[in-house]
From TrEMBL:
Gene3D superfamilies: 3.40.630.30. It comes from the Bacteria. Keywords: Transferase. This is RimJ/RimL family protein N-acetyltransferase. It comes from Paractinoplanes abujensis. GO terms for molecular function: acyltransferase activity, transferring groups other than amino-acyl groups.
Length: 240
């Protein structure tokens, strides 16, 4: 009996363990089959061709070494169900809504989906979504994400926010520094960028403190409230 040239597996988006198993077997992610699951849920399509190289399929966003990044003051780790309440609190703050795309507090079901699919998106190389924890107490202090929209340019984009109780202690700067270092050294990115609304001085100071420099102005890039558009300052840090 001859083996088929193409072997395809469809997996649930929230079943990261099964996706890790097929990656180990050399399956590559092809995309989303909308509504293809037994309950009309979206499924991830993985396939392996007979002449694909032996061994695990390559990943562009590796796991964090040892499961997390830390500098002793903060810990940065992939989203965990324990972080859900803190994440919802953060995303509902008016100043966080104002800097989010779209500028609205997401409904709880959307946040739950974000958490359930986060590992799948990491495995897909699309986004590394992480929580910032206070190292001493272990409490959720904020979030940081690396979006990998431009893999062909090896450029990632950061987004982040810190709960008011933990602001002004250098947590955002530390998180940006830890994730940028991981992006350069482990994920082999060449550029990490971040855009801040022109009036968001806290975020701009954070990026400057983390060693980023201004690259330019992005005209009308952010959707503002009431349908308007907002200019942003684009910051970059390069792997040197
Ligand atoms: C922006 C934000 C993440 C900063 O978090 P933070 O943990 O308080 O920042 P840090 O303590 O690491 O401060 C980093 C630098 O910014 C400066 N800074 C922080 N908040 C500031 C403020 N409100 N005004 C002016 N400077 C400020 C700090 O003094 C520090 O600079 P320094 O090292 O030169 O002294 C936080 O204010 C926040 O969550 N804002 C709402 C969401 C947001 O704007 N996200 C970014 C979207 S691009």
């Amino acid at each position: 009996m001859t083996s088929p040239y193409r072997s395809e597996i469809r997996l649930r988006l929230d079943d990261a363990a099964a996706q890790r198993d097929v990656i180990a077997l050399g399956y590559r992610r092809e995309g989303i089959a909308r509504g293809a699951g037994p309950d009309r849920e979206d499924m991830v399509v993985w396939a392996r061709l007979e002449d694909d190289p032996e061994g695990p399929a390559p990943r562009v966003l590796p796991d964090l070494p040892g499961g997390e990044l830390t500098d002793g003051v903060i810990r940065v780790r992939p989203l965990h169900p324990d972080d859900l309440a803190g994440w919802i609190e953060l995303r509902s703050l008016p100043e966080v809504v104002a800097t989010s795309v779209p500028p609205a507090a997401p409904p709880r079901e959307e946040v739950e989906r974000h958490f359930a699919y986060a590992e799948s998106r990491w495995l897909a190389g699309e986004m590394a979504a992480m929580s910032i924890l206070d190292a001493r107490s272990g409490r959720f202090a904020g979030q940081i994400a690396l979006y990998y929209f431009q893999p062909h340019l090896r450029e990632g984009m950061l987004g982040y926010g810190v709960l008011p109780a933990f602001r002004g202690r250098g947590y955002a700067r530390r998180a940006v520094q830890l994730v940028t270092k991981w992006a350069f050294n482990e994920a082999r990115l060449q550029r990490v960028v971040a855009g801040s609304a022109v009036d968001n001085l806290a975020s701009q100071k954070t990026l400057q403190a983390a060693g980023f420099e201004i690259e330019g102005k992005q005209l009308g890039i952010l959707p503002g409230p009431n349908g308007g558009r907002i200019d942003a300052v684009l910051y970059v840090r390069r792997r040197l």
